[in-house]
């Protein structure tokens, strides 16, 4: 039995090493091509463009997005604003008022409502295509604010090269300094766009569409089979199918579209769980077509490496679970994780390189102070992400759970989420990791730093989630008391009103 556990442990370590070696390859390719610049062709014509805005219960940010699109530096007779509104709350009348006002100003607008949310975002985007004839389709999620010159900077690449089917911009941040969580996420997002996306695009490898801040060619979507609800990451699925069909994707690192970073840990966990499920679904769906395609071997390897980006977390969790029984049986004697630690330097170097590229040396040093928070949050969330990956591998269908957007003060928003059941499992894993560290202290002390990082990470995430839930509960109780008090005042005023009228009537009679 011990030999089997040793073999599983070694396979997990090898798989983690291979994935991290892929990250190191991306960093190397970025460094080799860091001076490359994407030439911007001249804008020779202004074609008709449909801007699609998929919404679902986005009352706090929908108006801001619509205003940003209305401010585009583009002729109104060539611009169609499609709001694909599946909302069931106050978002609907808010959007209707906004679009009515824009229509009065000469804009072409469509407020598309569906009977149900079949296909979720993929279904909404497909429905929008049925209501327009535009060859070019720009897509923005509700929490993004595109700049006025976005279309004039993105369209030239599609117009100049008929082989390009997708243009993707770089994500910026509207609230990067809101709290420790948003500062940590900024490191991860910037590394993905500045290093990974740029390195993949400049190397000719497949790159994903990130779901927002991009422009599609209609003929590319149709040739790739259209939007599909088969996965929870419909953007990744379609972009890979399009590139397998021969279309190319163009990444524009100099075009920034800022968006809101989830400032609440429960919202961030929900977002990452959905992405983990969707990415794994895409791996199962696309691995076969990728491996049997005519792409070069390096293209296939790096595409599979990208589709496996959430698999390291269940591997790390499995290694943690295997550590105590192997320590008790002596199965880890002589096994060193030093090689894994060396290649694991690649992600921190990617964070540093991306921050230096965007903010200079001084800005990078300041931004990198969030790295410990990113390390603990990312490791602590390995449980919830692992559960999402396992659900996808088992073929369990999970609903599309949107990431709530807040715009400001998330604690007072009714969109804020409470902690889920993983809170208590994370607390249990913290205790398990501490036990493993205590065992390692007696037999193999070089494992103690890794195990203590696990313990601190699960403790941090569990404590953070518990604090958020307690703060939300306390605030909602206070708001409930305030509302009940205001309602009581209104009822009291209404009950006194007839008496007041009688008193006034009596005084008038006595006056006469």
Shape estimate: globular
Mean pLDDT: 91
Major sheet: order of its strands? 3-2-1-4-6-5-7
Radius of gyration: 27 Å
Category from helices, strands and their pairing: alpha/beta
Report on this model:
With 512 residues, the protein is an alpha/beta fold. The chain contains 17 helices and seven strands. It has a seven-stranded mixed β-sheet with strand order 3-2-1-4-6-5-7, with helices on both faces. Strand 1, helix 2 and strand 2 form a beta-alpha-beta unit. Helix 1 crosses helix 13, helix 9 packs parallel to helix 15 and helix 11 packs across helix 15. The radius of gyration is 27 Å and the shape is globular. The C terminus is likely disordered.
Summarize the structure.
This protein has 512 residues and is α/β, with parallel strands linked by helices. 60% of the residues lie in helices and 10% in strands. The model is unreliable at 499-512 (pLDDT under 50).
């Amino acid at each position: 039995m011990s030999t089997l556990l040793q073999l599983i442990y070694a396979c997990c370590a090898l798989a983690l090493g291979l994935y991290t070696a892929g990250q190191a390859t991306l960093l190397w390719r970025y460094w080799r091509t860091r001076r490359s610049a994407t030439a911007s062709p001249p804008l020779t014509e202004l074609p008709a463009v449909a801007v699609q805005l998929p919404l679902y219960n986005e009352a706090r940010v929908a108006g801001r997005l619509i205003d940003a699109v209305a401010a585009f530096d583009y002729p109104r007779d060539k611009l169609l604003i499609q709001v694909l509104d599946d909302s069931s709350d106050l978002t609907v009348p808010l959007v209707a008022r906004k679009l009515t006002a824009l229509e009065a100003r000469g804009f072409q607008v469509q407020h598309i409502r569906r009977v149900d949310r079949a296909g979720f975002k993929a279904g909404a985007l497909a429905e929008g295509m049925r209501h327009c004839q535009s060859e070019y389709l720009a897509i923005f999620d509700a929490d993004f604010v595109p700049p006025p010159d976005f279309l004039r900077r993105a369209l030239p690449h599609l117009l100049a090269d008929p082989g390009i089917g997708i243009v993707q911009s770089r994500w910026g941040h509207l609230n990067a300094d809101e709290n420790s969580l948003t500062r940590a996420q900024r490191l991860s997002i910037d590394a993905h766009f500045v290093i990974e996306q740029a390195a993949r695009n400049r190397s000719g490898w497949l790159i994903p569409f990130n779901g927002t801040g991009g422009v599609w060619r209609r003929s590319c979507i149709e040739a790739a089979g259209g939007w599909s609800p088969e996965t929870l990451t419909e953007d990744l699925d379609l972009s890979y199918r399009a590139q397998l069909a021969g279309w190319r994707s163009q990444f524009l690192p100099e075009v920034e579209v800022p968006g809101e970073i989830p400032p609440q840990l429960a919202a961030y966990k929900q977002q990452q769980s959905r992405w983990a499920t969707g990415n794994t679904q895409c791996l199962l769906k696309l691995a076969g077509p990728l491996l049997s395609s005519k792409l070069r071997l390096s293209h296939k390897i790096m595409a599979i490496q990208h589709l496996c980006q959430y698999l390291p977390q269940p591997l790390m969790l499995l290694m943690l679970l295997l550590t105590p029984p192997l320590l008790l049986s002596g199965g880890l004697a002589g096994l060193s994780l030093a090689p894994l630690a060396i290649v694991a330097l690649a992600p921190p170097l990617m964070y540093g390189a991306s921050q230096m590229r965007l903010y200079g040396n001084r800005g990078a040093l300041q931004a990198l102070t969030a790295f410990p928070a990113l390390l603990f949050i990312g490791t602590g969330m390995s449980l919830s992400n692992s559960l999402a990956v396992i659900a996808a591998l088992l073929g369990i269908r999970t609903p599309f759970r949107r990431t709530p957007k807040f715009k400001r003060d998330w604690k007072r928003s009714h969109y804020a989420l409470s902690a889920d059941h993983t809170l208590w499992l994370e607390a249990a894993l913290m205790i398990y990791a501490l036990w493993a560290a205590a065992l390692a202290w007696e037999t193999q002390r070089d494992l103690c730093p890794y195990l203590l990082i696990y313990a601190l990470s699960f403790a941090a995430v569990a404590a953070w989630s518990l604090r958020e839930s307690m703060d939300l509960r306390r605030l909602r109780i206070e708001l409930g008391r305030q509302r009940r008090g205001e309602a009581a005042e209104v009822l009291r005023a209404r009950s006194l009103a007839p008496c007041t009228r009688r008193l006034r009537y009596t005084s008038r009679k006595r006056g006469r």
